[in-house]
Design brief:
With 276 residues, this protein is of the alpha+beta class. Helices cover 52% and strands 11% of the residues. A five-stranded mixed β-sheet has the order 6-2-1-3-7. The protein starts with a helix and ends with a helix.
Length: 276
């Protein structure tokens, strides 16, 4: 028993060598010694160890608290900058449209950079090729949705699965609503809700400078340099069936008869609002 207690004591003595991040999680026992009582040497060592652990824990908690407050402050400043950037971009577009109208010209809208794709068909009677493409796009279930970058390979893939998906160009309001309401992250292959900025910081903070929800929204909406990692971190959105239902899944949205599959462009925002 003496050997066992000494081995435990030696294990505990090595604890202060751990990182300060772990130190905040130590459970430091409180040992009360009666006044005037004779304290054995081993108990003295244990009390000294506990005192050093408690001191380290206090420092670690204070450091973590300070770091968190600094991160929150910097995120708040960046959020204000992002709002100015969004407002400035919209104002620039309005000015260009007015200028074109006054000159009697046409204003060509800038090409969209971001797509939101929703799967509208299940798995019955699905041929192997579209099934594989939907799997590559991470659309494995009915009413799953993902953000994609507009480029040639993605558009070619969407051509192969057009009758099974609908897609368009989401607005800032739509991106924000989706992430805040139905945003889940992929952490160690698990679906974790984005209820805390710490979840995002832990996965994307150091490598990609994304420290919170507003950083993530900005990266997705503007299709920034780390869009691939940010979109891959997000678990595919599990949307509800749209309120009021679909019109006709067998026909395309752009057909004269009217339907659901295919490119809706800006009209995707109305559909997502009904599915969110």
């Amino acid at each position: 028993q003496g050997e066992q207690s000494s081995s435990i004591g030696s294990c505990v003595k090595r604890a202060p060598a751990k990182s300060t991040a772990m130190a905040a999680r130590y459970l430091v026992p409180v040992t009360n010694v009666a006044e005037g009582a004779v304290v054995p040497e081993k108990v003295k060592m244990k009390l000294a160890r506990d005192a050093s652990l408690a001191e380290e824990k206090t420092k670690a908690v204070a450091a973590a608290k300070k770091e968190l407050s600094e991160q929150r402050e910097s995120l708040k400043k960046r959020t204000q900058e992002y709002d100015k950037e969004y407002a400035g971009h919209q104002k620039k577009l309005i000015d260009l449209r007015r200028e074109a109208k006054l000159g009697g010209n046409f204003f060509v809208e800038p090409e969209a950079k971001l797509l939101f794709v929703v799967r509208i068909v299940g798995i019955i009677k699905l041929s192997p090729k579209p099934r594989k493409v939907l799997q590559l796009l991470r659309l494995k279930q009915l009413h799953n949705g993902v953000f994609l970058k507009v480029n040639k390979p993605i558009l070619q893939m969407l051509k192969l699965v057009q009758p099974y998906v609908t897609y368009g160009y989401p607005s800032l309001k739509t991106v924000r609503a989706l992430l805040y309401k139905r945003g889940y992250g992929k952490v160690t292959k698990q679906r974790i809700p984005l209820s805390d900025n710490a979840v995002i910081t832990e996965k994307l903070g150091e490598k990609h400078a994304i420290f919170g929800m507003e950083d993530l929204i900005h990266e997705i909406y503007t299709v920034g340099p780390h869009f691939k990692q940010a979109a891959n971190f997000l678990w595919p959105f599990k949307l509800s069936a749209p309120r009021g239902g679909f019109k006709c899944k067998r026909h395309g949205y752009c057909e004269m008869k009217g339907g659901d599959w295919g490119n809706r462009e800006e009209e995707i925002n109305e559909l997502i609002a009904r599915m969110n």
